[in-house]
Each structure stands twice: as structure tokens, then as C-alpha cells.
Fold:
Amino acid sequence: MTSVSELSAVLGEQAGRESADTFYQRLIQAARSGGGRLLVVDMDGKVQFDTFDEQCGTRLALSEVHTLLDGEKESDYGFHQIDNGTQQAPSVFDPLTGRDVNRTWVGCFASALISGGERVGALVMIDSVQETVDSLTNMRDRMLGIFGVALAVVLVLAAVISRIVTRPVAELSAGIERMSEGDYSRRVHVPGRGEMAQLAAAFNQMSQQVHNLDEARNQFVSNASHELKTPLATMKILVESMIYQDDMPGDLRQEFLSDINKEIDRLSSVVGDLLTLVHIDSHKLRLRREMMVFADTVRESVKRLQPLAKKRGQEISMEIADACEMFADPGKLAQVCYNIIENGIKYTPDGGKISVRLRRMGRDAVLEISDTGVGIPAEDVAHVFDRFYRVDKARSRDTGGTGLGLSIVQQIVRLHAGSVTVQSEQGKGTTFTVQLPVK
Ligand SMILES: Nc1ncnc2c1ncn2[C@@H]1O[C@H](COP(=O)(O)OP(=O)(O)OP(=O)(O)O)[C@@H](O)[C@H]1O
Ligand SMILES: [Mg+2]
Structure:
């Protein structure tokens, strides 16, 4: 731009002084050294000199030239696309960018020609800038290409990652849905050790627990119904035979009535035990704790069961080494003593021995109840605290047990933060040990 201005200043000075020929030669010289095409237009915009000798006499319709001739500026420039018969290399982005490969970009630099202080025309230099435009287009195409590839990679990665992230979530939600429909057998598989895998493991564990609880509940309901149905069925038979046998002898009728009475006792004891367990399960059972002497509770229970033992010719011995004063629920602990001693009597043959020992061991009261009874087979020992569990179903039926006594014992002892264990040898006897914290 500066060189065109400088050249126009020199040419302007010479314009009036030398012949048109010399002026033209000077122009060609300048165009050669500058490497472009030079044109001189007069004040009407008509081309007077053209170093390419193509447009002499024509009007140059270039906006830069007209701003100079109008006197608005001393120099100006602009870029235009012209059709000069050459074709550019096509690019894949041409349809996108709307590039016309048949047209060439040129730069027009115009400067006013001033001679003797007056504006006499303009010097215009036209030079191709296609190379620069080509390299810019190349760069843009390359960037568009890189951007396209990067976009594709990002989209693929996003799709893969979202699949990796959402698959375990979808698995889990499917599991939860199945669980809410009552299917607890469904397990979720999420590989790895990440948070989702931990969540899946926690879900599986919870699902297993719910499954176990569901089974235990069903088992409990079916066992409880069975326990209630048996005495009802017996009573129905007894009552029906009394109804349909008008000529039933008085003493037989009396016997039937006493059997019905026994069944009613059995029913009410089962219902009582069930209610106690339901209360403990629903956390409604509250201990009525008070300062009590555990030794008195033990003595009281033995006293209550003494007649039952006597009936079977059994002897209950008592050995109390410590009063074991403690803050506990006397009614509930009496039930613990009663249930275990009653078992001792029930599962010991006539003439056997039951011994009850109470002592203090550190901070604990230790109650041991042993018998010389039938004992419990090794494989059953672990189950005697289970609800409705009876070692010998037929034998227990004779003695009227429901298999709830020991589970109630265990729950009460646990509520007191204590423990109950059993040791037994089949045919020799059984020892139950209850350990309760004194303070
Ligand atoms: N001292 C014992 N000697 C031998 N077996 C015992 C003894 N105590 C309990 N068992 C076995 O454990 C089972 C469960 O005892 P648990 O007291 O819970 O039930 P139960 O005595 O049958 O009925 P109940 O609910 O009326 O007490 C018994 O059926 C019996 O088979
Ligand atoms: Mg019992």
C-alpha cells in the first residue's frame, strides 16, 4: 500500500513533464519490480495506461477507484473475485462454504495521482491474493476436518460412556421393579468394584434378606395356622360325637368335656405365645424394669412347677449362691425360668432329676438348669430356639408342646442384653445356661 502511494507520488510529479511513452515505460518498469499489474485511470475513471495492455479505454468499476476520484481519500484498497479463466483446486467443503472455483481473488490498491498540486487521476495496482486465500482455505478445511473428527470421537465416546454408566442403573431399576412386584429372587450383576458394584451388592443383600423374611413370615403363618387348627379339629370331633350320640354314657361325656377343656387350654396357651412373639417382633414389647432379686424369681418358678414334677416323681433341686439383685423385668424373667424348667420336667422321664443353680460371675447372673432327661440330638441343638421347632414331633404332641417356649426365652434374654446357650447329650440330659447382666 505504501509502495503504491510512494509510486503514485513519483509518477504524479512526472505526469505533466514527460511524454506518454516514457511514462508508460516507467510504469512497466515499476510493475515488473513490484510483481503486479499497474493501471492509471483519469478523473473520469477511464483506463489510460495498463501494463497488461488489456483494459485501456474502459472504465474501471472498482469502488476503491471511485472513492479516490470523488476526492474522499488519498488511497484505498479492496479485495475482489474476478473471472480470469483460471480454476482453483476444489475442496470437499465447497458446497458448505459456497466457494466458486472459477473465480480468483485479487487485491486492488489505489492511490491518487497528484500533479502540480491537483488530482489528475489514480494509480491502481492489481495483484492476485489467491495464494494467500488458498492457504487460508486449506487451513480452514483442515480445521473443519479436525473438528469433524473430534466431534465424531466425542460423540462415540459419550455414547460408550453413557452405556457403561446407564447399564448398571437400568439393571438396578429393573431389579427394584421386580422386587416391588414381589419377586425377591432377582439378583443384579454389576462387574467391578466401583460404587455401582457396591450398590448392586447392597441391593442383592437386601433382596436376600427380604426373601428370607418373606419365607420366614410364610413359614410362621403356616405353622401358626397348623398349631391352631389341630386343637380345633380335635374339639370338632369330640363335640360332633357328643351331638350325634344321644345315648352317650355320662362318664364318657364328662371325659370328652374334660378333653375339650384341655384343648381350649392348649389353644389359649398357643395364642398367648404367638401374641408374645408378635409383640416382641413389632418392638411393642417393653420391659417393665425394676430393682428385683433374681433369686426370688427363680424360687417362685420352681415353686409353681413343683406339683408338676411331683406328679412325675421327679425331684427339683435348687442351689442359690447369690441373690443376684438386678434392674430387670421380673414377669418376663419368671417366664424364662418357667419355660426352661417346664421343658426339663417335660423331657425327663418319670423319677428323673432337675437341678437349678444360680450364681454370680463377674457382672453377670448365671442361671443353669440341668436335667437327666432324653437330651437333644447334636443336629437339632442349633435349632431348638427356632420358632415351632420340636425335636420329635410325635413325642412333643403327647406332651402338648408347640415349639415356641424357647424362642420366647431367647427373645426375652436378648431384650435384657443377655445370652442363652444349651449343652446336651442324647439319653443323658440337657443343660440350659442363661447369662444376664446384673448392672
Ligand atoms: N430339656 C430338654 N430336653 C430335651 N429336649 C428339649 C429340652 N428342652 C427343649 N427340648 C427340645 O426343644 C424343642 C423346643 O422347645 P420349646 O420349649 O421351644 O418347645 P416345646 O417345649 O415343644 O413347646 P412349648 O412352646 O409348649 O414350650 C422341644 O420340642 C424339645 O424337642
Ligand atoms: Mg417348652
